[in-house]
Design a protein that fits this description.
Elements (H helix, E strand, L loop, with lengths): L8 H50 L6 H18 L1
Length: 83
Amino acid sequence: MAAADPPGAGDLSQLAENLLYQLQENFQALTEKITLRMEEMGKRIDDLEKHVADLMTEAGIENTNEEARVMKLIFYCVLRISA
C-alpha cells in the first residue's frame, strides 16, 4: 500500500479483486453449461432430422426444396417450443 492510500484501501482493493474473480468463475461455469446444452440440442436436431428423412422415405416422398424448407420450419418450431 502506498503512503498516500487511505486506511482500508488495500482491503477494498482485495474485496473488489475477489468479487471480479467470483464473477469470472460464475461466467465460465455458465458458458460451459450453455455450450453443453447447445451441443445436446444439436444432437437432438440431427436425430430428429434423420427420423423425419426416414419417415419421408418410408412414405415415398422425395426431399425437394419445398420439403427441405418445411423441415427447417418444423425444426425451428421444435426449438422454440423446447426453449
